[in-house]
Design a protein that fits this description.
- The chain starts with 12 loop residues before the first helix and ends with a helix.
- The chain has 503 residues and is an all-alpha fold.
- The protein is 75% helix and 0% strand.
- It has 3 domains: 200 residues, Growth Hormone, Chain: A (Up-down Bundle), CATH 1.20.1250; 198 residues, Growth Hormone, Chain: A (Up-down Bundle), CATH 1.20.1250.20; 30 residues.
- It is built from 22 helices and no strands.
- The structure holds 2-acetamido-2-deoxy-beta-D-glucopyranose.
- This is Solute carrier family 2, facilitated glucose transporter member 4.
Length: 503
């Protein structure tokens, strides 16, 4: 995208510190996805004990399932709601201040969860999960935004993947610390949940040393002088005129395109098809059943008769990390649509194998290994396709004007589906027994067919070419304004998030 020839940019200590500090937010996001998995049984026992103490009778098992599912899923409600005030927050506060304020949520949420056992209150636990969800919703926007804005253009794509990597690393850390010999025990689970404040404290103490995003200062606040100072600190160079020129160009392009509201997105025939595709791709990510694995894998492994379920969960976490790295290389080389279909197809096959293995478990004991392997495959295929790809599509199907609205709709669909899985899985699993993953297999097949027939390849195409693909009936004037953005450079979620606040 950059036409400016610039001397090789050096990576300064300030820059590394700033990226590290921001990425702590993604790490915490991942940690809170993975953390409630291993100690499920312990926490349930404590809910039971609390109930017994309060009402003099053991908790009815239906009530326990509801309370636990709510504790898991309310996280997504927090995330969903915080999407709503993210844009507003970014208009009022600078990036750094927004991150600082967001840390308060993590602090409150973490403390509530950590103290819930001591106070014998599952309400505190549920409220804590809600607040930490709100933190994660904000952090999942702020981190890529800040990193994308301070990164030099040449490094932006690579650094954008750090967000994804930090999330899967956070999940893995939570799974390892959740081992019963570490923190996953009856006494120590509050510490496990409370540890989420550690990255918060780190981030709060490092943030004062990180410069404010120069792109934000210049493009949104029009503070050229401060932007220059930030650039100097980040690059360690005195002469930053070329970067400023680049930002000027970006600002000009941004002002050329009219902002599109969410309502228009659905009304205009120009956008209707792309937005439906974006929503369905987000749903394909969540309804693939991946979070059923990340929230509930330990109890799935127990049912599958795996010897050490927690180690199997950690194995899934390791596979998850490894294939996130693999997919970084694949995304550069293969088409988005191909990868998405490969991922969905692979997950579908793994789900079918898993179901058969679970059904045969009673007669064929070694099926528990097949079950474990198919879960590993399921996770691996997720990271190849449905994990990263839907975000690419939203960024690439929409040009600058409609992109913020499209991203909000996509994010909302994603969190909603996440909630449905977190809330409903345990019930459906109790109801269907070993056949629960067949439901996901059917959904995956549906999304595979949908992708095959409806989703265009976007890699390396301009918005004009993609729009022509949709064969739209009415040709509005809006598409004429598309600049020929160079889509060879993968535009990542972060690219687009960086622009979300600029309105
Ligand atoms: C709750 O605890 C009681 C007594 O400790 C036990 O008998 C009962 O099975 C437990 N209920 C559930 C749903 O775990």
């Amino acid at each position: 995208m950059s036409s400016v020839v610039r001397p090789s940019s050096t990576v300064t200590g300030t820059f590394v510190l700033s990226v590290f500090t921001a990425v702590l937010g993604s790490l915490e996001f991942g940690y809170n996805i993975g953390v409630i998995n291993a100690p499920q049984k312990m926490i349930e026992q404590d809910y039971n004990a609390t109930w017994l103490q309060r009402y003099g009778e053991p908790i009815p098992s239906g009530t326990l399932t509801s309370l636990w599912s709510l504790s898991v899923a309310i996280f997504s409600i927090g995330g969903m709601l915080s999407m709503g005030f993210r844009v507003r927050m970014c208009n009022i506060f600078s990036r750094r201040k927004a991150m600082l304020i967001n840390n308060l949520f993590a602090f409150i949420g973490g403390s509530l969860m950590a103290l819930s056992k001591l106070c014998r209150s599952f309400e505190m636990m549920i409220l804590g999960r809600f607040i930490i969800g709100a933190y994660c919703g904000l952090a999942s926007g702020l981190t890529p935004m800040y990193v994308g804005e301070i990164a030099p253009t040449s490094l932006r794509g690579a650094l954008g993947t750090l967000h994804q990597l930090a999330i899967v690393t956070g999940i893995l850390i939570a799974q390892i610390l959740g081992l019963e010999v570490l923190l996953g025990s009856q006494e120590l689970w509050p510490v496990l949940l409370g540890l989420t404040v550690v990255p918060t404290v780190l981030q709060m103490s490092f943030l004062p040393f990180c410069p404010e995003s120069p792109r934000f200062l210049y493009i949104v606040r029009c503070q050229e002088h401060q932007a220059k100072r930030g650039l100097r600190r980040l690059t360690g160079r005195q002469e930053v005129g070329d970067m400023l020129a680049e930002m000027k160009e970006e600002k000009r392009k941004m002002e050329m395109e009219r902002k599109v509201s969410i309502l228009e997105l659905f009304r205009s025939p120009l956008y209707r098809q792309p937005i439906i595709i974006s929503i369905l791709l987000q749903l394909s990510q969540q309804l693939s059943g991946i979070n059923a694995i990340f929230y509930y894998s330990t109890s799935i492994f127990i049912k599958a008769g795996v010897q050490s379920p927690v180690y199997a969960t950690i194995g899934a976490g390791v596979i998850n990390c490894a294939f996130t790295v693999v997919s970084l290389f694949l995304i550069e080389r293969m088409g988005r649509r191909t990868l998405h279909m490969l991922g969905l197809g692979g997950m579908c096959i793994c789900a079918v194998i898993m179901t058969m293995a679970l059904a045969l478990l009673d007669s064929v004991p070694w099926m528990s290994y097949i079950c474990m392997l198919s879960i590993f495959g399921f996770v691996a295929f997720f990271e190849v396709g449905p994990g990263p790809i839907p975000w690419f599509f939203v960024a690439e199907l929409f040009s600058q004007g409609p992109r913020p609205a499209a991203m909000a709709v996509a994010g909302f669909s994603n969190w909603t589906a996440n909630f449905i899985i977190g809330m409903g899985f345990q019930y459906v699993a109790d109801l269907c027994g070993p056949y629960v993953f067949l439901i996901f297999a059917v959904l995956l097949l549906f999304f595979l067919i949908f992708t095959f027939f409806r989703v265009p390849e976007t890699r390396g195409k301009t918005f004009d070419q993609i729009a022509a693909n949709f064969n739209e009936r009415s040709v509005g004037g809006m598409m004429d304004m598309d600049m020929d953005m160079d889509l060879d450079k993968p535009s990542t979620e972060l690219d687009y998030l960086g622009e979300e606040s600029i309105n």
